[in-house]
UniProtKB/TrEMBL annotation:
Name of the protein described by the UniProt record: Transposase domain-containing protein
InterPro entries, per the entry: Plavaka
Disordered, as annotated region: 916-995
Source organism of the structure: Sistotremastrum suecicum HHB10207 ss-3
A Pfam family that the UniProt record links to this protein: Plavaka
Bias (Acidic residues) ranges: 924-939, 950-995
Amino acid sequence: MADVLKLHQDPDFQASDVPTPNDFDKLKEKLKDYEPPLPGLEAGEGWQSVTVDISVPMGKQPGSQIGSTTKFSVPHLHHRSITELIQKIIRTNPDAKDFHLYPFEEYVTRNDATERLFGELYTSDAFLDEFRKVRAEPPEPDCNLEKIVLGLQFWSDATLLANFGTHKLWPVYMYIGNQSKYVRAKPTSDGGWDVAYIPELPDDIEEVLQQLPTKSAHQPLLTHCRRELFQNVLLQLLDEDFYNAYKHGMVIEFPDGIKRRVFPRILTWSADYPEKCLLATIRENGRCPCPRCFIKKSEIRNLGTKRDQRMRLQRRRKDNSWRRVMIESVRRNLYIFGKAIAGQFVNKRLDEFSMTPNENALSQRLQEFGLDYHEILPVDLLHEIEIGEWKRLLLHFIRMLYSREPGDVWVEQMNARFRAIPIFGKDTIRRLPQNVAGMKRLAARDYEDILQVSITVFEDLFGTEHSEAITKLIYVMAEWHCLAKLRLHSDSTLKHLDTVTTVLGKELRNFADKIAPSFNTKETVSETTARARQREKNQKTLFGQVLASSAARVKKYTLDRYKLHALGDYTSTIRRLGTTDSYSTYIGEARHRIKKQDYRKTNKRKFKLQMMATKSRHPAISQIDASAIGGHRPGHTDGTNNEPLVPHLRYDISKRADSTFHIGSFVQASATDRAVKHFKSQLSDHVLCRLRGIPYSGNSLELPQDCSALRIQNNHIHCHPTMRLNYTTYDVRRATDHVKPYLKFNRKAPHCQRSETRDRSTVMLSTSDNQQSSSGFLYARVLGIFHVLASEVGRTTQEIKRIDLLWVKWFSDVPGWKGGWETRRLDRVWFPPDSEDMGNYGFVDPADVVRACHLPPVFSCGEDAERQQSIASDEGGDYKFYDVNRFVDRDMYMRYFGGGVGHVDRNQVARTLVDTADNHNGNLDEDEDDEDEDFEDQIDFERLDAILEGVDDEEGEVEDDGEEDEEDSEPDCDREEEEEEDEDDDENIDNDYED
């Protein structure tokens, strides 16, 4: 409002210049056909709509010995040329000037040891390898231009556009890996481009399928058609122009005025598990469910063992001639000789490897350039962990609580604990749902928050026999999650991630084999309801009654899921592609929000065309903004979402006070409170030390004889409602913590009341030489954020200085308690009993605070209601103990682990990096020394040779194997239940998931 008033008072202001609503409507219409008169800017977005044809194998028709094929056309594939889009991005996008054209490796040297760093995509081995290959190729004829690689990253995922209705969008997004992930991954940066909107199979496909000779082939063939459609869409995107650009490059003039030959290279394609299977042309949850290797379901439980690590290497999926010949042979028999899509012929050859009879578009177009499509499918932390394995583990914990008597009481106790967890940061730990056990409408960020605080919540809920083992399992899972989500890795952190993966595999096997079977677990009420709802859609009688039991089923915790297996691929993926935040599916999920906003602007009829028209206005507006402000786009920062206003300052406290109180009146009004007993003497001693530049320990008075020389202006203390604390993160970014005081001081009366924001009142400080802490930090509750105007009598100059200070209540380490990786426990602190000395309270310099911290109460030990009440305590008494949550965010974790590149100040970390590998050399399974059988032994090459030898190139016939080729009409019952659960995993993905 102040800015509007200032504008109105400007002498150059003209009321006629203020646009009216009608002016905005006219501008909106003009923008549709706007052609910006800027150098090199092209009008239009290059969208085109085409029809995709697929071939449907109809099998052998009655009386015929050969198969028949029907061509089916799918209209309305909206897409645009990738090569034209690349040229437009480089020529016109304001961010193109910041693209990294030359990949490099990063190293850090500490204590005479040099380590490789892994972060951005353009510092990864995959990018460097492609760059070297391109540079090693001979130049194009008559061309001496510099050759560079443009790393392409794709995301694809279908999404519902509204809470009600059936309108869906299946977009393909493209991002440029040469751009920093700190800009590219932000939804506000608009760093992605829509490449295509994949159509669904239209309903009239049913008319074609009605011509099948048997009804049992209906569903398998429908699935096959969906796979064929997806691959044919990819063929449209990877068109001839893209193929030529991949082979010969494209000459493009860059923002610096230099022409270069650009070679696009697909480095990642991020998708959830079902879409990964489409891209890899494999079956979902088949015998070998992984899109990167031939691991069998029964072998997934060996996560982290040496055997498991060997199998991942020996059984890697490869886009080799064996795979291509196998698929070609099966397709020949499907389309020419009429073999059934789900018959024995196909199943016998492909089911063992979970392959599908579809040609892979990526292989067809780009295999000759060395691209193996299995290697561009990275891990997916969001779907595989946060709403995958962790969600499944949390659900089983809830089932276990229900199985205890009385189950509802235990579950309500868990819910109450989650509700009591304090928040942290602006949105790091948000207020948790009222009913976590219901698990309704929880987003990925909610499951992440729940994981970060579950150690404290689940302590002692499972009885003395199992509680300790379960909390240790959660600790290992939380540590693994922190490591996997780091935005900057080193050789040391990746080595530790390998170690934690090994321990996590062992803990999960112990849980599945020994702990979980001790509980008679069944479906929760919400699970039973969801199952009945799903069956109601698929299976009804003529009277509409669901043919399924309403009784809760027995549920066991198993270790045969792909998402669990994926945990073992994180270290190798990070080494090859950089850290997970560079290709996380959260980037695509966050971009879905923009699509849903565009959808709301349409009239819901032919909405895709209207959304494309809306999208076409965005670049024009962005380019106008960039031109008007010299190329800098608002919202682009080099820091975190919460960019400090003054990043070079250690902290920031407002110049204007929120309230003021008289020191003498406050002390007199609270004379009986132990928190205020030494308030005045400690305040005077602290301020005097600050004026003289003397280090202040806070354990005792440093200058008790000189306090009479101190003068505080009007004997007043000025109070502030918040302090912003700037710090450098482990990945060398600038970030800010907000600290709120525990107490709120009244302007009119000399007393204080507890603040509603007291959850944000805990801070951590580094230890000094005469202070010891098992965790490496000191912890305090900030009672007040003050400043005083003070001077010292007797000095040559009695200049009045502003002294900022925090009034704190100190936590202490719990005697005999040790936390950390070795014990699989969080550090624990408490408020020691009040004594006559002044050790429990004091004042600190805000510049000495390292960060705000998260101290959830230890619910299992209860509150200390017998302790004398104080304004510095909760109404019912403080909890006896508090856990130090080192997993609250990745920067906090690295302060305890050590080795953060941005933590150059030794006072900012708890300890140096230690090698933990020796602590876990006994964690491997007993069967790890067993020799793996070679991968060649896993494949029946004799049978493969027989298939190939039976192919007559001239006649196109295949020898009959003597078996009846009938359709396998039996449903895959062992997968039905798992597929239902996997559908729930993709619900309510957090579209507002911001780091």
